[in-house]
Amino acid sequence: MIDPVLLREAPERFRASQAARGESVDLVDDALAVDLDRRAAIAEFERLRAEQNAFNKKVSSASKDEKNQLIAEVQQLAEKVKIAGQAVSDAESRFESVVGSIGNLIIDGVPSGGEDDFVTLRTFGEPKTFDFEPRDHVELGEMLGAIDIQRGTKISGSRFYFLTGIGARLELALMMLALDKALAQGFTPMITPTLVRPEIMAGTGFLGAHSDEIYYLPADELYLVGTSEVALAGYHSDEIIDLTNGPLRYAGWSSCYRREAGAAGKDNRGILRVHQFNKLEMFSYALPEDAEAEHEHLVGLQEEMLRACELSYRVIDIAAGDLGSSAARKFDIEAWVPTQQTYRELTSTSNCTTYQARRLNIRHRSESGKTAPVATLNGTLATTRWIVAILETHQQEDGSVKVPRALRPYLGGLELIEPVV
RNA sequence: GGAGACGUCGCAUAGUCCGGCCUAGUGCACCACCCUGCUAAGGUGGAGUUCCCGUAAGGGAACCGAGGGUUCAAAUCCCUCCGUCUCCGCCA
User: Rounded CA gap, A391 and A380, in Å?
Assistant: First the structure.
């Protein structure tokens, strides 16, 4: 939810933001109109209600004879109050639906446009080249006994897989490396629920345009999370938190579930795009004025992780039209995937400013003693998908894969993953 | 799965049977001031959240788990839902 007061004071900023996102600019004027309606309805209701309250005071202290007389008089007023109250809730739900559909105000500098209009901020390393024909991660995964896609689809259907043997260990090693990195930075480790209530899912902003991406269990009215961001954002919902000692930082580990509804036919091969995977996610609650610095901090930690895995990558500033409704700015880090001859997203970090917190009612107490919404930020620190880039990048001609140094301690010192057949 | 109890302004509680003196009382904690020679005790006052009007001072409305209903009037009566706890059964 955007800040309705700011909307009133500076609607042109929202028009510009909507335009950059390629979304409706007229929505801003609709929002201003429903806001006006809403406030008029509230004023009218409160005026009538105050009148009624005053009258009721008289009724309670009146004598019996007067009472009947007074009650007869006030009945009409009560009817008006009821109608006015209904008008208020109607106006409020219109307000919420219009204002709620306006995306977060983008941060200055975010490129306009859609998916292809990102700006590359920096690159690290050179795209890996080989003096032999490199194998893709599916082939390597089979040779190494690390990934079993056939049996994954046998038991669960397409986009499911087993990580087996060294593949399973590699994922755990990645998660542990990421967790240790987060721990060193003062993040609190969390293992989070993966099923959440509708209001939490809605509060994080995932039930908007992309709700068909999410698994839903109607029998229990619960949603399967696509990221532990959902649980971590909900963690402090309806709370007033203390940020005087700096941001609250959490590192959440969970399985993530995605329907990939709009991606039929895309990335069908391998484990690049799957229905279930594991992820270590960073989540920060920060003061709004600290949010941009925190965002840089998160992206910095992500870069450290990619470097630790000895991957080549680029950091991109996602264009406004490709941001989710909650994000005010988003940086993705894409690693070079040799057999695809392109960069593929391994991490994503979003600054949601106060948009998510306003929906989830997460506040802090400012110096003046007033409450105010906090800023929330999230970012990937490791996922199953990283295995794709690691296997492909560090493969050798015989199909063996060199283990990045930073991962070795988590694999009992293993330096080379060798084919099992 | 069965039975029962409960959900009140930070915490703890009163109020709910019998609707209006509840703009929700009290204790603790908190803040300011006063008193007192000392890390004690006492006194006075203040203090919640959200929203609306107003440049402001200020005024007004709503909030007793959530949402509906009855009524001139709901913390209080009725309905639905959510949550917590206890006991029993079953199963990891």
Answer: 19
